[in-house]
Amino acid sequence: MSAPIAHGGGITEAAAIFGGRLEDWLDLSTGINPNPVALPEIPIHAWHRLPDRHLMDSARKAAARYYRSGDVLPLAVPGTQSVIQLLPRLVAPGRRIAIFAPTYGEYARAFTSAGFTIDEISTPDQLTPDHGLAILVNPNNPTGRAFLPAEVLGMTQRMKAGGGMLLVDEAFGDTEPDLSVAAHAVSHDNLIVFRSFGKFFGLAGLRLGFVVAAEPVLSAFQEWLGPWAVSGPALVTAAKLMGGDTQAVRSSILERREGLETVLRQAGLTIVGGTPLFALIDHERASDLHRNLCRERILTRKFNYAPSWLRIGLAPDAAGDTRLADALRKAHLA
Q: In angstroms, rounded to a whole number, what is the distance separating the alpha carbons of residues 121 and 98?
């Protein structure tokens, strides 16, 4: 097993190194909506009993409407990380794995640990018949690079010709729904789409995601996860929130992203990518900047493979923007 990857959100570790109470920290290291939506009322039976079939059905139908997946009912899973671990089971031994890189590191880790050979690629023309699975995060984490649906479907066809599958991770797709290819899973049996629930709604602790794919793939994941993989309260929350009006959530995220971008540009930092939920900056002394911000109790996300990059998430309000701006002035690196 390869070494664990350091992800965003490690406030406990940061506080142990740099001091301060956990509540003193401003966590800008993740790509999660900093203003969680209000939880809906959850009936006591959802807590009391194992999740019954009707709860799963309600969540899947709400997800189908929300993701516009048509006749394909997305499968609820306990966070998409849970199915990333299972992906190697879908690919025949000996096939190579193509990953559009750089991107979320757990994909490479899962396949490397399972003994597969990985090719990091950057363009669709690098896909070959040797690839049993290609993985595309769209829009990408952390660069924000995005492919249009027509381009993604072209990759799907290219993979189909070689007997391979295409996985599209749309974890950051809620704010850019026109990029989604979830609606096409019904007509492309080698297309798999992962969706995250917690990032957009600000409820990452719920550990909930969805898989949109043809029935054989969904059935396989369901079998591998076993019964009651997703809690009743999570299913109820998904059904109610996905069935409501999400425009206010989207508008709030875009407003917060505008605030972040203003702070970064006024600080003279170069934004080289991102999504509405985070910005990626390039700075020759990014590691020093990360450390200086930690001294001000502000956590950002650095990358071992790209030492000049920092990913900075959204503050919950204008006061958070001001705090970041003040910290950047103190941490200024000429």
A: 6
3-class secondary-structure state, position 13:
helix
Domain spanning 44-242: CATH 3.40.640.10: yes
Query: Comparing C-alpha atoms, which of 264, 261, 145, 137 is closest to residue 199?
Result: 137
Domain positions in the chain are 11-30+247-330, 44-242
CB 181 within 8 Å of CB 153: yes
Question: Among all chains, which residue has been given the structure tokens 């559009």?
Answer: 100
Superfamily of the domain at 11-30+247-330? Aspartate Aminotransferase, domain 1 (3.90.1150.10)
DSSP annotation of 29: S
Q: 131: which strand partners?
A: 96
- In degrees, rounded to 5, the angle at the alpha carbon of residue 295 between the alpha carbons of residues 289 and 296 is 95
What pLDDT sits at residue 1? 54
- Tell me, what amino acid is at 139? P
Query: Which two three-digit tokens encode residue 233?
Result: 């309260």
pLDDT at 5: 52
Q: Could you give the CA distance from residue 210 to residue 37 in angstroms, rounded to a whole number?
A: 19
Radius of gyration of the chain (CA): 20
Burial pattern 270-305, b for ≥16 Cβ within 10 A else e, equals eeebbbbbbbbbebeebeebbebbbebbbbbbbbee
pLDDT at 7: 59
222-281, pLDDT tens digit by residue? 999 999 999 999 999 999 999 999 999 999 999 999 999 999 999 999 999 999 999 999
Residues lower than pLDDT 50 in the chain:
334
Q: What span, in angstroms and rounded, lies between the C-alpha atoms of 125 and 213?
A: 24
Can you give the pLDDT at residue 242? 97
Per this entry, what is the length of the chain?
334
The predicted pLDDT at position 331 comes to 83
* Distance separating alpha carbons of residues 232 and 238, to the nearest angstrom: 10
For residues 185 and 152, is the Cβ–Cβ distance under 8 A? no
Query: In the chain, how many H helices and how many E strands?
Result: 12, 13
Contact 330, 322 (CB under 8 A): no
